[in-house]
Amino acid sequence: MTEWQVLWNQVAALVLNLRIWFIREVLRRPSPEFLSAGDSTTENHLRCVAAQIIGPGGVDQVQAYNGCWAVCGYNVMKEFGSQRIESPPSSLRPDLVVIRNKAFSVNYADICIRWGLYESALRYVGWPIIPGFDIAGEIEIAGADSGFSPGDRVFGCSFFGAYASRVVVPHWQVMKMPQDMTFESAAALPTVLLTAQHAVNLAGVPTLIGQGHFALVHSAAGGVGDMLCQILRIYGLTVVGIVGSQSKVRSCKANIVIDKSHEDWAKAARKHAPNGYRAVFDANGVATLKVSYDLLSRSGRLIVYGFHSNLPKCDGSSLGTLSPLHWLRMAIDLARTPHFDPMSLTLDSKAVLGFNLSFFSDEIETGQKYLSQMQEWIQSRKIEVPPISTFDFSHIRQERLYGLSNPQGNHGEDVKELYYYLDATPTHSYMKMMYKYPQAEFPYDELRRVNFERKKDPMLLEYELLDTGIMDDDKYFDVVVEYAQGEPDDTLVQITAYNRGNEEAELCLLPQAWFRNTWSWSSTSKRPSMSYVPDQRRIEILHEKLGSYNLYVDENTEVIFCENDTHDARATFGALSPYKESEPVSQNETLKELGDFRVLSAAGWHAIHRRFETRLGPAPDGAQETGKDQGYRFHLSGRSTGHFKDGFHDYVIRGDKAAVSSSGGTKVGLLTRHKVAGGSHVTARLRLTHSSKSFDRSAFADFNMMFQHRREDADRFYMFLQDDIHSEERRLIHRQALAGMVWTKQLYYYDIRTWLQGDSGYPKPPSRGGRNEDWDHLYNLDVISMPDKWEYPWYATWDLAFHCLPLALVDATFAKEQLRLLTSERFMHPNGQLPAYEWNFNDVNPPVHAWAVWRVFQMDRKNRGDAGDLGFLEELFHKMMLNFQWWVNRKDAEGRNIFQGGFLGLDNIGVVDRSQPFPNGGMINQSDGTSWMAFYSLTLMRMALELALNNPVYESIACKFAEHFLLIARAMTRVANNAEHGLWDPSDEFYYDVLANPDGTREPIKLRSIVGLIPLFAVEVLEPDMLTKLPRFAGQMQWLFEHRPDLASLVSRFEEPGRGERRLLSLLRGYRMRALLKRMLDPEEFLSDYGIRGLSKYHDKNPYAFGDGPPLQYDPAEATTIIMGGNSNWRGPVWFPINYLLIESLQKFHQYYGDDYLVEFPTGSGQKMNILKIADELSERLIKIFERDQDGYRPGMNLHPKMKEDHFHENILFYEYFHGDNGRGVGSSHQTGWTGLVAKLIQARGREDAHES
Predict the structure, then answer these.
(1) Between the N and C ends of the chain, which has fewer C-beta atoms within 10 Å?
(2) 3-class SS letters over 464-484
(3) DSSP state of 624
(4) pTM here?
């Protein structure tokens, strides 16, 4: 190439850059589409994906390309005619290899290529170009003379073309990877290490310069600088490294480090080497080149391998295009760059040498020598891999909390961010939460990759955010979000971000408001509007049904808009969805390579398939898991241009001004950019009001005062509520538990008919595989208490029943409405079944709804101080009778009052999947299913008795449920006059599930689990005055016990009054209750320091196997087997709902037996307590999970040493369940729902303490 051609390339780069700058920054025309399919005829599954630069300019000139089979460097282009290889060659040249690229690195040179300033790229490839030097992957095809085999893990260099998923290179450019090296680490090494090696070689090390000499390295903490320091020290030189900030001093590997941000680097360098340096390595250019030359000693060499100070720095508000001002500065710097004439070099006895590694394609012998040396250093651990940051090829800034799905997580689905619900009033007049935001890039890929790799060993713990080390130096923000209600339709929002680190850090805050998109799929829905009025600093919001509102913004806020519409060009191939439909969606290889298309794991799919086989079609093959989510198509906007919902990302991250509007849209972002000093904080404020509200002055004039009032209101509310709770520690736990209950309310919208039939104007969707198709009456559009708004953003009926007790502490009206809602005609099935949860409404959960109705009625009555809400009780009683009949008709297959139930919420409690038919055609008669029904019968009996006090009609209904309870009691016990095997095993003195075989034989499944403790729940105590007031019921019960002694002998003696003339109905006679309590209170069985375990610890050393199935063993924490998704484990951990019911049952037994009835506690200790004291002790053990211990940890949060530090220990997570031995939180980390029962326990213990004092 001639000098004129080089000059022409530079002029062309200038002109094209200015053209792109004018189009993007001045005209603000949109960027080209990111994905280019090309016109290749290669089949989709054979195509590679590459990132190409279509011409000089900003980052918007980078485009994904999938129109070829593979990519090569310029030194192989003659073989194929182009950098893009359209199809697989019929025969591969013997010295070439085809690499399935797994990772590549991003180098500063790639940015220069994008600007058109990299000579070799223009000379040998031109536009468009696929850049990139470093490759790391697996050999896919090996040439005959390459010395490699398919499957070999290799890394090395390509002379451009590395930004691709399949690369063809000569064999000498790659080498085998060490076994313990990751692809990411391997891709970070070749270019920087080879550049450093050649620079050291040019400097004459070690032939001319060796031990005892000084060498100076600029940018010593950078990629090449890091390698230079390590190599020079290997050869014995004393290395002085120059870095640009204090944070880089610690990571620099030089012998002596100079921080030029704090001292004059030239003076410091002269002080350390008064006689000068034999070698100086400079990639800065004009900023340091002259001084670097002056610092050389006689015979010294200045090695120049870059010139980054000559090039512009583009801020984050642009697309990285070069403006005319940038070109002017570059011209000035070029004129200022020192020139070294031969005479001066000779007289000074110095040398200046420069090089560019991209011209080394013909230096095969030198390249092989360098690679061989590099391999030796890596294997001998002489070279340390520099710190790296990894980026997913499809990286998009997240707009919601990040977590892993079942196939990705090593123990099921799990949110991977840290956030806390700190405060809330039941009216939502004040709410507060906190989010911990790392100052480094969030490690999305590391969390996904490591957790997925840990699936290989189920004993490994989940890999959490703190495990990545991203917060080790307190380099994070505590982002506190507060809401306050000024009055109805006046909401104040304050966001305060605290920099917990010691150094200044940048932060972008982007609160958003948007309209839910209903216009794209409903012909009757009109598009709403938002528009900005700058002089009043408000956004005017208009909706045809909601009315008009104003959103006021604070000073220094940049208001940006887009439309809440799908960007079709980015979504054509599918969208993320948490569901798995009737059969696996076919994979799109193009986006699978990008990471946008994600595939359900085989193991996860098989686990789901076992459970829903008849509705999910054929089972999948055993394909390798990918750790990626499954993709599904969603609604498209039908528009090719406009400001789409991903526009905020394009603007904030890419600087694409054309992606957003400044005037209006249906989604608004309120952007502020901050530099927050260490230990300091910044605040953003906004206020949403109805348009009818006006302000005499600013909308923020009374803002601080209003917030202060609402905080004080919240404090007064909890001061009254916590009057009996004297421990500050317990007040904190109690308040945050209740805050979580209020925060996890959520609008839930599910219209089954529309979901099945499709939206108006759209074709009917394919079959949903039978799931929920028989629930076409269901229409949910309600605010509902969720178990966890991340992991379970949908209601679960038996979870909700437990939620209502802590909710009733602060908002009994809402708790009652929640219970009523689930029994309404829009929820309950016409046959009486309650919907289980969205995944499968037909699943069967424990029948606890009636119990929750009764308990909430009691709590509300106590607070009201009257007879209670009898209308609520009566309405729900009738609904519960419908549900009871559904249970009797559907779950008692043989009509013998022995119930199957199935899943019953206890995912993996059994040795077999209880929701599936037994292989031999038998049925599992479940101890818990039958006990739950006995519990259900007694609860309905008690509700009927309460109603009978006001309406005698209910007396006979109460008698009917009492009789049903007695019949269930008979069925659960071996009956003397026939061969039927009951559920009570007299030899083991425990309740077991029993397999009923088709030939009539019965086999007990002798597993000691909480299934055998659930009979304790079926207990009811009747006060003597009630029996006096209800003579008809009392007489009928007396007749039953006199004329049916067979029934009377099965339960505790109703006819024998206990303490205070009370009467007892229970499944357990005295000796059976003692037998169960003996096991339950044994530390070697069920009793943990933190509550009652789900499975006896006996099975830790004595695994139980049934038939040919695998043995079941005590697992105190995460599940080690995948059943029902594997994200919940009942085989050993402590679960709050079961523990709470056990405590209430013990309290009822004490009401009857009194203080004189003593039980050994713990079993084997010789110490005896009455039953109430035991219930209190269990409450204390559960509460202890959340209290700080002597080491500063809360047992439930003892997952990382940082959890006991300031800004962590006072913020509490409410996990789904807890380790059976040490109390550590397990599963979903924000399932405040039923774990929120700890607030009810604390409240009860506080009142008991106050009573005793």
Answers:
(1) C
(2) CHHHHCCCCCCCEEEEEEEEE
(3) P
(4) 0.73
